[in-house]
Amino acid sequence: MTETKLYIIRHGKTMFNTIGRTQGWSDTPLTNEGELVIQQLGAGLKAVPFKEAYSSDSGRAMQTARIILQEHTEGEKIPYRTDKRIREWCFGSLDGGYDGELWGVVPRILAFNNYEEMMSKTITYRELANAIIEADTADWAEPYEKIRERVWSGFEDMAHQREKDGGGNVMAVSHGLTISFLLSLIDETLPMQMELENGSVTTLIYKNGTFTIDKINDLHYIEDGKKELTHRNLL
C-alpha cells in the first residue's frame, strides 16, 4: 500500500489579512499578491500526484484550491470537494473586526497584559476557545469540544478514506488557527503555531489511524514555483 500523506495548505493572503482584520467565518478574497503567491505554490506542487483535493467552504480557501489545481499537471482530473469541518474557528462578534480587538480583549480575559505576553506563556486551546466565547457578545463562537470534533473528524476522515482506497497524497486547503489546532491534537507538546504563513504547506503522514507530523509551515514549494514561473515566462 502507498503511504497516505496530507498536504495541508493555509489559504492565500486576503484583503483582511493585509489590513489586519480577523476573518474567522467572515470572508474576503485573495489580493493580487495573494493570488500570485498561490500561483507560485501551485507551480511548485504541480508534480505532486494528488489523488484528491479538499478545501473548507470559505471563499478564500476555495479560491486558493482552484488556483493550485489550475497550475497542476493533472488538475482537471483531480476530484475536488469542500468540507465545512475544516473551516477557520468562529470568532463570533469579533469576526471582521481588527486583529487588535480580538487580541486585545482575549489576553486580558486570560489575565495577561497583551498578546505578546500571552504567547510567551503556555496556554491551551481550550483556554483560548473559552476566552473567545467570553469575549463574543453575539453568542456565536464555538465551544472547544465542538471545534475539536469537527476539525479532527474532517481531517481524519479524509486521511482514513484515502488509506482505505490504497493511500496516496491528499491536498487540503484550510486556515491558520485550524491547522495550528490540528497540530496540537496530534502532538500536545507543540507550542501554538500562530505564525503559519499564507500559502505554507504542512504535511502529515497517516497510518492505521495515527497522524505523524512531517513538516510545518513549509515554504519551499512557493520558492520552487517562483523558479518554474520565471523559467516559463522566459521561454
UniProtKB/TrEMBL annotation:
CDD domains: HP_PGM_like. The keyword Hydrolase applies. SMART domains: PGAM. Keywords: Hydrolase. This is Histidine phosphatase family protein.
